[in-house]
């Protein structure tokens, strides 16, 4: 009987040790020291500065910055219900402790160096004004390793890796999304906090279909535990490098494209229900209307 008890205890301990090792394999990103840094090409900055005199800019004369000062929240109020209009669902300036505003400063510094006063939504391409205080935009900023067609290529360094700065407008976030391949509707844009920066690709949150290689389009074999951790909320793991067994390319194959979704822009405005476009195919963006020099490469 003692031998049986000892055997059961040993088996239980081995299971616990195995579970601990599995948890250590893909730890939560929040438990690791992460760093967000600007990635500004000095030559690009010099060319943009030489092309325009900073203190002669009308926006700078009015606001002391190239970014807008927010006068109202009309655009947000036209989409989200008033019960959601609070500091829980919208990043407000009062949420930031004094001296702990590194994310906002890093983001605005990078965009300012590129003279980017607005960015187009990656879904509908509507231009979104960038504000100098929280909420920084009428939508969300997020980081992605995939360039989007018609969106300027401006990037930050996060954990030493280059990521594109991209935005989704509040109207697209609060629309109905479904996977174009399987019909999955698990994307919950309404749960994201507006006006701030997410350090992962929010478009890649739903992992409903078998991921495909970004180089050869072959199916990627993904460890089930990795998908499980992502579904549990560790969304930064969508950028985990995976090697394709077909072509040998190693990169974040779990990152998804906006064209993987059907998007119905449906929202209420002044008591009228509006239904917008379906974003099922790549769309050509409108011209940004500037001769700004933008670095299109990531190094």
From TrEMBL:
A Pfam match: Headcase
Cross-referenced InterPro entries: Headcase (IPR026066), Headcase_mid (IPR031947)
Source organism, top-level taxon: Eukaryota
Domain Headcase middle stretches: 61-254
PANTHER family for this protein: HEADCASE PROTEIN, HEADCASE PROTEIN HOMOLOG
Protein name: Headcase middle domain-containing protein
Species name: Pristionchus fissidentatus
